Amino acid sequence: MSRLSVVVDDISDWADFYPSADVISLAQYLNDTVGQGSANKKSRRRVINLCREYHYLGTGYYCSLLAEARGERVLPSLQALGDFARKNEKAFVMPADYTDILAEVCPEGESFITQFYFGRHENTKLNKLGRQLFDTYGIPVLEVKFEKKRSWKIKSFDSISIKDLTDAQKTVFAKALDEFSGLLWRKPKKNWRPKFEMAILIDPQEKMPPSDKDALEKFVAAAKKHDIYAQFITKADYHRLAEFDALFIRVTTAVNHYTYKFARQAEQLGLVVIDDSTSILRCTNKIYLAKMFETLNLPAPKTMLLSSFEDINLDEVEKSLGFPLIMKIPDGAFSVGVHKIDEKKDFMKIATKLFKKSSFIITQAFCYTEYDWRIGVLGGHPIYACRYYMVKGHWAIYKHEGSTDFESSSGGFDAIPTHEVPAKVLKVAVDATKAIGNGLYGVDLKQRGDEVLLIEVNDNPSIDHQVEDAYLGDELYMIIMDEFKQRLEARGRG
Fold it and tell me: What is the pLDDT of residues 252-290, one digit of tens each?
């Protein structure tokens, strides 16, 4: 498990809090040899810098400077301190709904001052604003002054030392610190001291998540067997990424989505990340995949790229692809935004509809098969295989119906051992992932006799209990967590 150090100017600053060996003075920290010589090995020590002065050349500045020189993860970071020194209260944009919230919090008066602790506030209605401030500046204790003229605005904000807090404020601070540091401050059950800590990013509200609840719990159990403490986080926990050694994204990804932001930030912090940001960037755009398949001479259905700003020659489309054909937007998932065009007369109607969502659309030759192959590939090796069958009487494995895209039905499936999959299917699947990265992918393919065609590579493949794990069972989750452990140990962070 990571070592945590809370650094204060003087131990007396901590006098009103519960004593802890994790709390050290700045002088002790300066003379501490733990982590020295490990800057290139990503030291596993975490530092919470609670020094009194964060300004340039102040004690807090030197604390963060030394931590980063040692390769340790520190809050606030040097970059955050620089951003905070250049802060512009007028440039900070409060959430749109906060005028009414602040009016409720302070129904009378023209101004008030309050404190946020690690982005948290004792009035939970202010937590959204607190998280935004914390994500922006990373200051553990932030004092904010609000002022009302025509509407409520932030007049100023500044860091505040814990020694200057009132007794009541110290109680709120201690609770916020405990919540922020999580496992690091609490005694694990049965004295289990995990070697690594993992965040599993989920969205409890997602209609079609990549893993169901049972599968998620199996990931947690498998992680524990690999000496990894895994816990679930949501998009509200962006500021907590520095607490972890690894990030496992189990939310449907997109470049214009918070999942990409999480991946990028986690990578910058030195975490092991699946899905990594490069894989998200490449896999979530079908245009990229189509051009990659073409460049690498990988077998795929004949494809044409159409743009909204060019005239479409329907005769050329028909000659090249024929009818029926498939039309889809570049960034759809779970067959959302995918249409089968049976006749030439329906082409422009559907194209016009899709051009409202994207400047480019993809058209492909239609290739019906009874099922699609899904090959799970991790680190360049196939780890599971499924056949997804078409919905009865339909041309795809998902049939979207009703008022939303996510009111859908799906066909059957079966999971089989990879050694029973045709060798050509496995080879094409693995070859396709090599140009993407070494993460976890779900490769979709069609097979007609000896012909194998690539459909797409998914960076965030579905892994549901009793579906993708139907053959391997718990072993599938063990394989994935073993990969995380190997990558963590390879980074020298154990």
Answer: 999 889 999 999 999 988 899 999 999 999 998 888 898
Stretch 151-169: mean pLDDT, rounded?
88
Q: State whether 386 and 473 are in the same domain.
A: yes
Task: Specify if 359 maps to a domain.
Answer: yes
Q: Label the pairing between strands 246-249 and 272-274.
A: parallel
- CATH classification at residue 315: 3.30.1490.20
Whether this model's pTM surpasses 0.85? no
Residue 63, burial from CB neighbour count under 10 angstroms (0-12, 13-18, 19+)? buried
Per-residue pLDDT reduced to its tens digit, 326-373: 998 887 665 566 888 998 888 999 998 888 888 888 899 998 888 999
- Please list the residues that pair with 5 across neighbouring strands: 47
Residue 188 pLDDT greater than 60, yes or no: no
Amino acid at 150: R
Is 386 among the domain residues?
A: yes
Cα separation of 411 and 402, whole Å? 17
Total number of domains in the chain: 5
Asked if residue 72 lies in contact with residue 35, where contact means CB atoms within 8 angstroms, the answer is yes
* Type of residue found at 74: V
Q: In what order do the strands lie in the sheet containing 23-25?
A: 23-25, 4-8, 46-49, 73-75
Task: Give me the half-sphere count of Cα atoms (radius 13 Å) on the Cβ side of residue 37.
Answer: 3
Interval 314-329: pLDDT, tens: 889 898 899 999 998 8
Asked if residue 48 and residue 116 are part of one domain, the reply reads: no
Picking from 118, 136, 160, the residue at the C-terminal end of a domain is 160
Question: In the prediction, which pLDDT does 40 show?
Answer: 42
In sequence order, the 6+-apart residues with CB closer than 8 A to the CB of 256 are none
Q: What is the pLDDT of residue 18?
A: 81
Based on the fold, state whether residues 108 and 149 are members of the same structural domain.
yes
How far is the C-alpha of 328 from the C-alpha of 251, rounded, in Å? 22
* CA–CA gap between residue 258 and residue 248 (Å, rounded): 14
Beta sheet of 338-341, edge-to-edge order = 303-307, 360-365, 325-328, 338-341
* Nearest-angstrom CA–CA distance, 115 and 457: 47
Q: Which residue has the higher pLDDT, 397 or 35?
A: 397
353 lies in which domain range? 302-365
252: domain CATH number is 3.40.50.2300
Contacts of 31 (CB under 8 A, 6+ apart): none
Contact 111, 146 (CB under 8 A): yes
Backbone angles phi, psi at 23, to 5 degrees: -95, 120
